[in-house]
Design goal:
The complex is a heterotrimer of chains A (about 220), B (about 300) and C (about 400). Chain A has about 220 residues and is an alpha/beta fold. Chain A is built from 7 helices and 10 strands. In chain A, helix 6 runs parallel beside helix 7. The chains are: A alpha/beta (about 220), B alpha/beta (about 300), C alpha+beta (about 400).
């Protein structure tokens, strides 16, 4: 369960302001966040991830109050519990496919690669059809392949929350469907919460809840 | 016991071999002294005796003054511990070869003022040099026994440098040689003569100047009958300087003797002994020279 | 740490050219002052070694440096010649022995050095092939000359007709190469050695020609009277000397008056050297006596004063490099901002990020230092040959 209550956030020196009185997302829910540019969708993801700190209010994930976590605890929380998927894939240009997938293990010592991880990676690669791309560098891959690789990286530590920021924004229609199916499938199988920011109203199908930043109300899909 | 003869032979061979090696070793330890003519060879032998290894590679038939070394004999000179030269531009080959200069000792350097200058050959000109004549020194220096003593003294001094531990013996040897040379010197001085002498070859300059002898030389070779022009020159000389004695480096041929007899000239052999004599040594040859000369002069 | 190193190496590997250029340029900047210092100190060492091995030099008064350079490095310079008799006079003093040298001619750009056999003993030069000098007209060549001109014993080498002294009547002489010296790694490797007399022959002081009294070709004789024969220009002046010519070979004048460039004097002991130098201080001599090591040290002090200038230049270059490097790092960080932010988003710490960057820098610096050390090592290996080739 993710709970946001009396949350207020603004960037210093800017008139942007995000205020959420109450928002609850139950575990395993697939949530789409829609709204115009600059309405605070990505900010919401960053607040949940503990990357940004609210000016007031609380972010509670399970029984942890994210705001009161230390920097290290926040990093460990992100690396273990959250899988990030970005619109522009954010792959590391100088690492090959496999190294990109394993990146979380290389930048934070609180998780370790074990036999289970290796099996999990094999399974994901099979499912996402990128097994043959593991030795390739990002600039040698198509957009669809890049995003599938990025999803692998996001899911490698088996996170309970997936924060996807416009994951299909740079993809053609066929890939869009494919990517969303992969995310839904993982969330369903692992009882993970999927929060996806999107502009694409065609993609809303399949989500349990849609949060519309136009009126900042949550609706059942 | 069957092997005894074999063992004996082997023993003999071994001992012979080792003796030879020993000898070679001793020879190698001796300083090698090279000389350019027989008088210097003789002096060195007399002073240095067995202490030195003498190198005088000029064969008996040739005149050391005009000898030209081959590569091998030059090499033996180069390997010497000291090289005694005669000075007075003797042995012109020395001018055209490379020697370790610091080992070259000019035995007449101490008496340079006593050297007699002569003209060599005719004057000639070529190239930009203009007319020139090659002047040089008369080089049979040892025929003045005082000079010979000085040359021997230089040899003694140098040998002492090489063999400092043998100094007393070397000095003693030199004294003995000096005494003998002095005796000959005195003998010649005591028998000075105003008599006119013809020299068969211009090699008696030192003899004539040291012992006040009147020697006028022609260019006769003992084995070659002089040409009529040469005889004419001799007659011309006799007209101005009547003489009844002619001294020769070697015994002249019978035909030459006959021609000389016709002119009432007695032949005296006075060998400069520049190379090793067939019989005797430097002393015996010089004594014979002096005796023959004195006999005629008296 | 290992993971940071892994990521750092991956980054460098991916940008391999950029990395190599960085390592190369930083390596060179570290190496240059070290290498130059090595080159300078090795030049000094070699020049001093040669000077130290030459106890005393006696030559005409004038430029001391020219005299020493001419006589120990065998570089030709415009020095006044002295008479050969000087050698004899020095020998007579009993302080040691003297080795005359004359170096005014060249043979195919290598100096012809006229001397005596004592020089070879003094310098410890051995004959590698052939034999040592024996007759006038022969030469023994240094190993470098032999290699460069592809000469071996039995070949011949002609002296160059020109020399800056422009002595009238110098005839090019075809010298016979009789020996090649062992490599000594000194200027002796680059010289053509002859006997003094051979040098005098090139100077026109001695020659061989047909015996004028035995001439059969009467066109050789312009004029003849009872005492003088004038030869025509046709009279053959040898430009090479064969064994059979040797007898007719002669020098005009007293060899004591013949020229030499300098005398190397080898004193019997230290005291003898001091005594001889003392004489030159108190008595009026036409020549000067020099201790080569003093002259060379003074020379080197002057030349290598420039060393300090180098040091300043290198400090400035180093500073400029540091600034440029900082700029490169700053620009790289800006380019990599997004990548580093992604890592932070996913769960990396700032320390980790710094660790990765530092690891990369460490590898570059380590590579540069290794390159500098490698170049320095190579310099050490080749510096002697280099100096011999280009400096001495």
């Amino acid at each position: 369960m993710i709970e946001l209550s009396n949350l207020e956030f603004h960037y210093p020196g800017s008139d942007f302001k995000l205020a959420i009185e109450q928002l609850s997302i139950a575990r395993g829910q697939k949530v789409a966040v829609i709204g115009p540019s600059g309405s605070g969708k990505t900010t919401l993801l960053n607040l949940i991830a503990g990357i940004l700190e609210p000016n007031s209010g609380d972010v509670k994930v399970g029984d942890r109050h994210i705001v009161s976590l230390s920097d290290k605890e926040k990093r460990d929380y992100r690396i273990k519990d959250i899988g990030f998927v970005f619109q522009d894939f954010r792959l590391i240009s100088y690492l090959n496919g496999l190294d990109n997938i394993l990146l979380p293990f290389k930048i934070n010592n609180s998780i370790k690669v074990n036999g289970e991880t290796e099996d999990w990676i094999k399974l994901m690669c099979d499912e996402m059809a990128i097994k043959s791309k593991l030795s390739k560098f990002p600039n040698q891959l198509s957009h669809g392949e890049k995003q599938r690789l990025a999803i692998c990286r996001a899911l490698v530590a088996k996170p309970s929350i997936i924060l996807a920021d416009e994951p299909t924004g740079n993809l053609d229609p066929a890939n869009k469907t494919n990517i969303m199916q992969l995310l839904f499938s993982y969330a369903s199988k692992n009882d993970s919460t999927l929060i996806t920011v999107t502009h694409d109203y065609d993609m809303l199908k399949g989500f349990d809840t849609v949060i519309d930043f136009n009126d900042l109300t949550s609706k059942k899909a | 016991m069957k092997n005894l003869p074999l063992l004996l032979i082997a023993f003999c061979l071994l001992s012979c071999g080792s003796k030879k090696n020993n000898k070679q070793k001793i020879a190698a330890d001796k300083p090698v002294v090279s000389v350019v003519n027989y008088p210097l060879c003789y002096f060195t032998e007399r002073i240095g005796g067995d202490f030195v290894e003498l190198n005088f590679p000029i064969d008996q038939g040739s005149d050391p003054a005009y000898w030209v070394p081959d590569s091998e004999s030059l090499s033996s000179f180069q390997k010497s511990d000291v090289i005694f030269t005669n000075g007075a531009n003797y042995a012109r080959w020395l001018n055209n070869v490379s020697l370790p200069e610091r080992l070259v000792v000019n035995t007449s350097a101490t008496i340079a003022d006593k050297l007699i200058e002569v003209q060599e050959g005719v004057s000639h000109s070529h190239g930009a040099d203009g007319e020139h004549v090659h002047t040089g020194f008369a080089f049979t220096t040892w025929l003045n026994f005082e000079i010979a003593i000085e040359q021997a003294r230089t040899i003694q001094v140098e040998l002492i440098k090489l063999l400092p531990e043998k100094e007393s013996t070397l000095k003693k040897n030199f004294k003995l040689l000096e005494k003998e040379l002095l005796a000959m010197h005195k003998q010649l001085l005591d028998n000075g003569s105003e008599m006119m002498i013809i020299g068969s070859h211009p090699v008696y300059q030192y003899l004539s100047s040291a012992y006040h002898l009147h020697i006028h030389s022609v260019h006769f070779e003992p084995g070659v009958m002089p040409t009529s022009k040469q005889w004419h020159n001799l007659d011309h000389l006799l007209d101005h300087h009547p003489s009844s004695v002619m001294i020769w480096e070697n015994e002249p041929g019978d035909d030459i003797r006959k021609e000389l007899q016709k002119r009432n000239i007695t032949v005296v052999v006075f060998s400069p002994c520049a190379n090793k004599p067939a019989q005797g040594d430097f002393m015996s040859v010089m004594n014979r020279n002096i005796k023959s000369l004195i006999d005629v002069l008296s | 740490m290992i993971q940071s190193l892994y990521l750092g190496l991956k980054y460098l590997q991916y940008h391999i050219y950029r990395t190599l250029i960085l390592i190369g340029s930083i390596g060179l900047i570290i190496y240059l002052p070290l290498g130059l210092r090595k080159l300078i100190s090795e030049s000094e060492r070699q020049m001093m070694a040669r000077a130290d091995s030459t106890p005393l030099i006696i030559g005409s008064k004038g430029n001391a440096t020219d005299l020493v350079i001419n006589s120990i490095y065998l570089e030709q310079s415009d020095i006044e010649l002295i008479a050969y008799s000087k050698t004899k006079k020095l020998d007579k003093l009993g302080f040691g022995y003297s080795i005359p040298l004359i170096s005014v001619f060249n043979a195919r750009d290598y100096p012809i050095v006229g001397t005596t056999l004592d020089y070879f003993n003094f310098r410890g030069l051995e004959i590698a092939s052939g034999r040592n000098l024996q007759f006038v007209g022969e030469c023994v060549i240094g190993s470098h000359v032999a290699d460069e001109l592809s000469l071996a014993p039995g070949d011949s080498l002609v002296s160059s007709p020109d020399n800056f002294l422009d002595l009238a009547g110098s005839y090019p002489l075809q010298m016979k190469v009789v020996g090649v010296l062992n490599t000594s790694n000194t200027p002796d490797d680059r010289a053509v050695f002859t006997d003094l007399k051979t040098n005098w022959v090139i100077m026109g002081l001695g020659h061989g020609h047909q015996d004028m009294k035995k001439v059969t070709d009467f066109s050789l004789i312009l004029e003849q009277d009872s005492s003088n024969i004038t030869a025509s220009a046709k009279l053959f002046i040898y430009n090479k000397i064969n064994g059979e010519d040797l007898e007719s070979f002669h020098f005009h004048g007293d060899a004591n008056t013949f020229p030499i460039s300098a005398v190397i004097f080898v004193p019997d002991h230290h005291k003898a050297a001091t005594l001889l130098r003392g004489r030159y201080k108190t008595e009026a001599f036409k020549e000067q006596i020099l201790v080569p090591s003093d002259v060379v040290r003074h020379l080197l002090e002057n030349i290598f004063r420039i060393k300090h200038l180098f040091n300043t230049a290198f400090i400035l270059v180093g500073l400029a490099t540091f600034l440029i490097l900082s700029l490169i790092i700053a620009l790289t960080l800006r380019l990599r901002k997004k990548e580093l932010y992604t890592m932070f988003t996913i769960g990396s710490s700032k320390t980790k990020t710094i660790e990765i960057i530092c690891t990369e820098l460490f590898v570059i610096v380590l590579g540069s230092i290794s390159l500098a050390i490698l170049l320095y090592g190579v310099t050490g290996y080749f510096v002697e040959a280099f100096i011999r080739q280009f400096i001495l």
